[in-house]
Design a protein that fits this description.
mainly beta; four-stranded antiparallel sheet; five-stranded antiparallel sheet
Length: about 100
């Protein structure tokens, strides 16, 4: 997994994320509203810690979407045959907020 900080100021953080095929994000919660633009990829699986529930999410380059905070601990796994890349803008509630903390942070 590659995470690259593109820009940060007190009220927002812009991050680039790349997952190779089969690679997973770290477990986290989503504390902020965010806007995601998919650069590449085709299929993600969203897994929820401690639950057999998962979601298959088809994505495509150029897809853009708004998301709300989600307190459930989860991660995305790239189950497509190509790299998944996204650029996300996180709208921070306070200057030093971590937008996707790991459980226990």
């Amino acid at each position: 997994m590659i995470e690259q900080l593109i820009s940060k100021r007190d009220d927002l953080l812009i991050r680039r994320l790349i997952l190779a095929p089969g690679e997973a994000m770290r477990w986290h919660t989503d504390l902020c509203r965010r806007f995601t633009v998919v650069i590449s990829g085709s299929l993600l699986r969203i897994e929820f810690r401690g639950s057999p529930e998962s979601l298959q999410v088809c994505v495509r380059p150029g897809q853009a979407d708004w998301d709300l905070p989600d307190p459930r601990v989860h991660r995305a796994v790239n189950v497509g045959p190509e790299s998944y890349e996204e650029v996300v803008t996180f709208f921070l509630d306070r200057p030093e907020q971590t937008p996707q903390p790991e459980p226990g942070d």
